[in-house]
Amino acid sequence: MSKWERFELQEFLTANPKMRLTYYDDFSITIEGEYNINAQMEGFHSIHECYSLKIEFPEGYPKTIPVVIETKSVIPRDLDHHTYVDGPFCLGSDLKIKGILSESPNVSDFAGKILDPFLYSISYKIKYHMFPNGDLAHGEAGLIDDYERIFNVKGKLSVLGVLRALSKRKRVANKLPCPCACGKRIGVCDFRFSLPKWRELDKRRWFKKYLANAFVPIEVTKRKRRRA
Fold this sequence. Notes:
- A 4-stranded antiparallel sheet has the order 1-2-3-4.
- By secondary structure, it is an alpha+beta fold.
- 38% of the residues lie in helices and 15% in strands.
C-alpha cells in the first residue's frame, strides 16, 4: 500500500469529482481542478464558491507542507489576501500547519482543516471586505502573533527562544534561558514539558533552518563607553 492510499487520496478525489490527479508517484502528487467551498462560521454569512486550484503534495508529506495555487487569479496575489505574488497561498504558520497534519495527515483532513478555513476567510474578505475573525498581521509580525498563541509565550524574543531550543539537542536546550521569562533555565522550568510535542513535528535541522530564514535577526548594539 502506497502512502497516498494510507492518506485516503481516492476518498478525496471521489468527494471532489472535478479535481483530477495530474502527477503521481510514491513520493509526491499533484491534484488540479475545480474545488468547491461550502462553509459557514457561527455568526457570519455562508460562503459558496468554486476555485480552480493546483495542490502539490511534496515528497516528505505530511512533515513537508503542501503548496496550493489558485490558477485563475480570482484571489488577488497580495499580502492583504495572504497570497504570494507567484501564486501560492500563505495558509498559516508552518508549525501550526505541521501540528494539524501530524494529527490528521489524510488528504481530506488537509482540505477540511487547513484549506477550507483559509478559502472561507479569503472569500469572506473578497465579498464583505473583512475577515470573519479578524486578520493576523502580515509577514514576521503575523508569525510572532501565531507563535505566541501556539507556544503560550510573549514577545519575539520568547518565540525565538522556543525555536532555538527546538533546534538543539535536549541536553543543550535545557541550559538555555527559559522562553517563558521566569528567569530560570529550561531544564528546571515546567515549560520543558511543552517542548516534546513540538520536537515531534520535525528534525532539529528543520527548526534551525526555519529560525534562520523566517525571522529578521534582532540586532544587538553595543553602546560605546564614554571616556571619563
